[in-house]
Sequence to fold (580 residues):
Amino acid sequence: MLLTLLPVELLIEILSQVSRSDLKRLCEVSKLFNKLATPILYRSVVIKAESEVSLEKSLDTKLLNITCRHSENVLRFTRDFQITSSFHDLTHKRCSRNWDFNDYYSGEFQNEDGDILMGKLEQTIIRFLEKLEDGQLRNFSWELGTCIPEQLLSSYNGQLQAKQNKIESIRLVTDGSCYTHDFVGAPDLTSFQNLKRLSLIGLNRFYFESLWGTFNGISDQLQELELDFVDWQAIDYDPDSPENYFAEEALGMSRKDKICIFPSLRVLLLSRVPFQPFQRAMAYAFGFTHLQSLRLRLCPGWEGFLAHVQRLNSRIRLKTLEVQHTVNCEDSMGEGEQLLTFLHAFDGLEELFVSTSGPSSAVDLWRAALKHGATLKRFVHHQRTVNIDDESAYFEEECDLPDLSFGPEGINRLSQDPSRNPLVSLDLECLGMCCIPSYLKHLLAPCAAKRLLKVLHIRGSGSDALKYKSLIIQRDKYVNNGKECPKVTTKLHHFAEWIFGPEGFPSMKVLAAGDFSHDGRYSKTNVILCRREVSDPPETISGRFYRYAKESDVGVWSLLETYSSALAACPTDSILEYGA
Fold:
């Protein structure tokens, strides 16, 4: 084999670019490759639960296998340890020990099975960690949506604090609705003095003291921070209150503070984190000197926060901006004015993802996006509103607004006079719009001569697809394309024929339709189409100019991965639910 003649350093570099499945096959045919590839294979250990219903049981078995099956300790190469699960079906009370607050105090609480399952998993994880050398791990992720075993992360006997305190990146997806936190305390992160990246999802107010201790020690070195409270009630948020418990207790600030707590941040993602009435103080706290990516999802008071950011007189260096409005029909036209002002205040964005409260002016947002036209490559615009049909079963519930507040007359005006349409002047590679296909054709037709747009995403909230007639798929009708996938509607069929056809976009590679948030939660109502080629076999399920994507379409899946941040931006639903 010619590869074996290469210098070892070059061979290792080549092997590091090979997929895990191919690496495993190479290990089976060559002792040399086995020796060189094993450190690469075990650098990152990812244990994923097979079932969301029995998380602890399936994880326990997998961890036992990887801990015990090798005669030599291959785990000495491990730097990244991730325990994860999908969040597709079970989004409420995932924790097997989910303690009900009222039942606990009434003496009626009993969940011995949950305690046993969590206890077994806890011991298996400890056995796994005991195979590692002290200070070996650099990244740790717990992405189950459950409480974290006490022996793993606690102030008095946490294995990670005691043995792996050189960790630089921590990601925790926990169950903030579980009252276990009230009695055993939130995970203690104060020992990790090398932290540079921190992601905490599923927080509640019991975390605030731990957060304050963590930030007090390492806030000046944090480069990436993600905080998602999932539900405002979990942090006792009251929009009419002059208090902000997160700002006061977790950040330790007062409303008059002008202190930069996070001077090194490059990436900031906040979801359901309230700013008001601390907008000015929090603008100072999250320093913008180095910030390149800012994502604000359903954060009350975000408008005031951005206004104060502008007044800091710091240069804004953002490459990515995501803003998701809260739905408020009473003031939807005025709600986004601050966003437009902010977009006009700087340039250089490469990604802009916005979910607005409708009805609101789409054209005004697109015109503001033009300020970044020289650099902008990925753009998402989604409008949500409230169902005001009092005869609907979903009266006063949130829903998509796929006409983008235009109506037939507004679309006709833009179609007849493309100079009114700012989209024509944007040179995008990826575009995501929640829009009726026929309207979208009118909006995009003047741009068809451009040879840049590769991926178009027709957005539709997955939760809406379960309630309303879909613009994308025919309910209960499927095609077999290697595996069963939903059949497109006649409207989407005609649109796909146009965009992949001779009058459409010659650069178009992928037309994705549906909701791609939360790693495939709504995959059963999504459709992925690509260009039909002359070389495609005659039995290919397709239209004249398009076909359904197959698992073997490596190029299609590679593009979807490249633009995954745009496809999953502004998710309508949260990763977990805390409601009863």
Summary: Confidence is low (pLDDT under 50) at residues 99-111, 329-333. The CA atoms of residues 429 and 453 lie 4 Å apart. The radius of gyration is 25 Å.
